[in-house]
Amino acid sequence: MSVRVGIIPEHFSTPIKFSQSKKFFQSNGLPEIELVDYPSGSGHLITSLNSGEIDIAVGLTEAFVRGLANNGDSENYEIIGSYVDSPLCWSISTGINRTDINSVDDLQNGKKIGVSRIGSGSYVMSYVLGIQEKFSKPFFKDFIVLDNFQNLRKSVNLVEGIEGSDAFMWEYFTSKKYYDNKEIKKIGEIYTPWSSWVIIIRKDLANKNEIASNFLKSVQQGISYFNANKEESVEYIYNNLDYSKEDAVNWLKTVKFSDDVTKIDFKKNIENTVDILKTANVITNDNAIDNLKRFVRME
C-alpha cells in the first residue's frame, strides 16, 4: 500500500528525508512511502488530510490543534506523535522599502496581515502576537490569504498583481535569506509557547495502528541519524533546501527534535495551546479539550 506523507519542504523536513533515503521506512515494512511537498504550509496539509489527498502529515502544532478543537468529529485526522520539541521562532516581516512600518508597534493601527491560509500557523500566530503585544481588539484590520511564502513577500512589497498586506510571519531561518538579499525587512520575532511540530494521520487509514507505529519508528530513526551526522545534515540542507551553510549550522544550534516521537505532552502542547488560542478567539468551541482528547493518541 502506498502511503502519502505531506511535509513542508524546509530544513525541519531533513530527518524525514533521511528516513526515506536511508531506507528506514523500507526496513520497517513501509516500502511505498511517497513524500509530498506542501510549501504553502500546515493549513494546506489539513485540507489535504480531510480530502484524502494525503494519509500522514508533519506540521505545526497550533494549526492542527486549532482544527481539531473547533471542528471535532468533522475532522478526519488525529495527532499521533511529536516531532520537534523546541519552540518555533516566527519572524515578522514587511517590505524592504516600507517606511510606514518599522516595528511591531506599527502593526496595531488597522494593518493587514498576510497569511498562507486561514487556520495556518501564520494566521494563528498573528493572534498570539496580538495577545503578547496587548494590541486593542480586533488586533488587525484584515487577513490577506496569499497561499505561499513567495506571494507573502511580494504582497508586503506591494508588487502589482498581488493583493497588498503590511506584514507577515514565517519561520526565521526560512526568512533570513530574504533579509540578506534585501527583499524584505525584519521588524520583530515571536516564539511559540509550545513544542512546534506534530505528526498526524488520517483516521480511516487502512491498518492504521501498524502503519502509524512503523512510521513513527522510522521517523525516530531518521531523527537519530540526523543527530549523529550533523555535517551530513548541514550539507543536505544547504544543497537541497535553499539555505546557506552558515544558516544551516546556526539553525542546528536552535532545534531539538523529539527524543520519543510517540510521546505527546498533552498539558503543554495541547491544553496550553488551546488556552492561548481561546484567548485570541482562534478557538471558539467550549468543548475543545474534550474534542482533542478524542483525537490525540497518547501512549
Automatic annotation (TrEMBL):
It is found in: Periplasm. Residues 90-190 form the Ca3427-like PBP domain. One of its GO terms (cellular component) is periplasmic space. The keyword Signal applies. Its main location: periplasm. SUPFAM superfamilies: Periplasmic binding protein-like II. InterPro entries: Ca3427-like_PBP2. Keywords: Signal. Belongs to the bacterial solute-binding protein SsuA/TauA family. This is Unnamed protein product. It comes from Candida boidinii.
